[in-house]
Automatic annotation (TrEMBL):
NCBIfam families for this protein: PRK05878.1, pyru_phos_dikin
The enzyme's E.C. designation: 2.7.9.1
Species this protein is from: Microlunatus phosphovorus (strain ATCC 700054 / DSM 10555 / JCM 9379 / NBRC 101784 / NCIMB 13414 / VKM Ac-1990 / NM-1)
Upper classification of the organism: Bacteria, Bacillati, Actinomycetota, Actinomycetes, Propionibacteriales
Protein name, as recorded: Pyruvate, phosphate dikinase
Gene: ppdK
Keywords, ordered alphabetically: ATP-binding, Kinase, Magnesium, Metal-binding, Nucleotide-binding, Pyruvate, Transferase
Annotated binding of Mg(2+), by residue: 773, 797
UniProt-listed SUPFAM superfamilies: Glutathione synthetase ATP-binding domain-like (SSF56059), Phosphoenolpyruvate/pyruvate domain (SSF51621), Phosphohistidine domain (SSF52009)
Cofactor(s) annotated in UniProt: Mg(2+)
Residue ranges occupied by any PEP-utilising enzyme C-terminal domain in the UniProt entry: 533-897
Amino acid sequence: FDELDTVEQTLGGTWDDVRGLLGGKGANLAEMTRLDIPVPPGFTVTTQACLRYLDGDNTVDQAPAPGSMPAEIWDQVLEALRATEHKLGKVFGDPTTPLLVSCRSGAKFSMPGMMDTVLNIGLNDDTAKGLIDRSGDEHFVYDSYRRLIQMFGTVVLGLRDELFENVLSAARTTRGVASDAELTAADLRGVVARFREIAPQFPTDPYEQLRMAIEAVFRSWNGRRAIDYRTAAGIAHDLGTAVNVQAMVFGNLGEQSATGVAMTRSGATGAPGLEGDFLLNAQGEDVVSGTRATLPIQSLGKVMPRLYAELQEMAGRLEARYHDMQDIEFTIEDGTLWMLQTRDGKRTATAAVRIAVDLANEGLITRATAVRRVSPAQIDFFLHPQLSAVARATAIEEGRLVATGLNVSPGAAVGAVVFDPDTAQRLAADGRKIILVRPETKPDDVHGMLAAQGILTTRGGRTSHAALVARQFGKPAVVGVSALEVDLVGHRALVGDLEIAEGDWVSLDGGTGQVFLGQLDTFVPDISDSWLSTLLSWADDYRRLGVRANADYPVDAQRARANGAEGIGLCRTEHMFFATDRLPLMQKMIMSGSTTERREALDELQPLQRSDFLGLFRAMDGLPVIIRLVDPPLHEFLPTFEELSHRITDAKIRLSAAASLDEIDGLLTRLRHDEDLLGRVEALRESNPMLGLRGVRLALRYPEILQMQVRAIFEAACDALEAGGDPHPEVMVPLTTDAGELAAARTVIDAEAAAVFAERGVSMPYQVGTMVETPRAALTAPKLAAHADFFSVGSNDLTQTTYGLSRDDAETSFLVDYLRTGVYDHDPFTSIDPEGVGALIDLAIDAADLHEGFEVGVCGEHGGDPTSIGWCHEHGLTYVSCSPLRVPVARLAAAQAAL
Ligand code: PEP
Ligand code: MG
């Protein structure tokens, strides 16, 4: 660990390269050693050695045979071991001054609990005796010895942990005590003897122990749970793990000894100050496994004030060195504090945002770094549901708050209780919402945890496996709910007399630790006035790309603006017609036999649209509001052919059995209406509606619809202006494929606008633009630009028409297989396809560049996708437009693209 300078010089690379070679843990142990932080001496076997050993095998089945460690690696291990012995004046395997070591995995990226560790290596009957002579503490030595055999047995020899746990629990019962710590030295000697019988292959040669342990850690890189974790976390599979061999220090040497884990700031909220747990007279795994009730780290300040102050001081130094919140492990051996590990701490989205902002305000990082630190996915968390206050209060009043545990990963989760991870995975794949309930979680449960809405455990603390994994993946979680007893065999949980069966609904609040029976209402949090708004305001300082919202109703527009949207990039006006009070009017319009009749129906719709538009202009006062003319084919506003046929058959059957004239009358009217509708549906029926009478084609075919919409837009704009507002109306023509279409539509739009302005005696600047949604529109963009003031890329349709695959069907059909088998490397409906769709968008941008002030935005779903936002930034688009809830994500992603 004290050769970091040499490693850096030899490698000649960055800190990232150092971590790649030594693993995160090894690099940090070396760095702490360089910072003069007390670290037990030891050495790191590199990831390169691991890869050499695994020799490129990346599957569990093809793992190399034990005992095949290359000789030169082992020789270097021995050399480094000599140096460690020298530092401590102890000798590995020597009964008089025995050195014991730990052997821990440490990959480049932290994978908590996914790989293996063996402690107390070097103990056998002889060294145990020597250690007893030196320490005079037989209890401690046999406790360490039994831990070695147990860990070696499970990790290296692959024996089941229960075999060992059963022996321990029998010993506790015989002695009549509750914890292992209360067993006597003689009891533990008996336990060791039994363990040796259970694990007869346990090597008594310390060197054999060390070699086998290192190889086992190497192999654990390719264990199933490690592979699953990497796949879920997006970590490459070819990095390998380093192995850290380090002199043991003991937290179980009596009441002046302790061991603990802590975050330098709260991993849940980001609040400053140490947060963690410790145990007196214990070894590390006792703290993380949750088997003994831990004490909060603050109480260390009462028991060992000097050491607590030292710990706080070291925490500060580590944060200053790493410029981030740290997750530390320490051990106090007989009054001396040792740091065993430091790494960047896992945190919730809430904590990530607060820590980034606080660190910038404290001068530890720049604002730009703070903006880079938080991922768009973490921002997305704020947009996830939380329990509604009313639902919570009602549930409490009704006695449905059944238990409370530790609030380790915020957010509300509502789902049906499931007790095993495989079932959880299966049900979730069927689209069911589930909550995974376990006594505690282990790495083998990760697939079920990922599939669950939320996680509930009865044991474990803030740093337990369940808490860490939940936080990393943004899953709401409540752990350590001690009032809850899980009966895995009976598939039920008990809280006192209350039984919760598999399939019962529960609601969790990972922010308060509360567990409720039943399905509680949730809401999406308000993000204003918080650390998040500070971070986003910093993001705004860096981004070049504008962020607008796709908003159809005034309330959406208000929410979008509160989230930071700089205008409306797309109002899909047809959505306004789908409202229940408007649909009949729309249907009346579609059913009209003549233009006059149609105009009458449109006259009724017009004031409704006008008032919606006025709401949009008000909400976005001073900002652009792009209103798109009606786009989908008209049959979408009518019932389907099947539905109508069914209704007609049903009416006919009822007619044949009708009892009164009134009833017959009513049924006949209904029947005639449905038959008329059916006729119209048939007339409007198209083989390929997506390529049919929609978009600008519809507007040109029924210019009266176009006129009505344009009139509503400009009358609303005049209303807004007269009320002292500053409306910026922009009219957008959908699905244009030809300059002639656009020219024709524009003539109607300009004429109608002029008519409204003349009637109202006012005038204002406005723009008319078109969507670019087909390859032809992109290819002829220079011609379209001659008739347009702006372009907006409808990337949903442009992807559909460029690939020639249906946006409504592909993602539930062959595309799923394409993505699974790697035929496509990404879903083009999620992220812009740079080669095809992107090339077409570039044509539109080139055409726009020839005109001063000509803006080009993207308003399909891609506008809210961080990867696509990066692409849009690089390709010089003016803005992206996305749903109001995605606006904060887009602001951050746009800033990160620019940084
Ligand atoms: C698009 O096609 O990308 C678009 C924004 O329009 P819509 O989704 O309404 O077809
Ligand atoms: Mg479209």
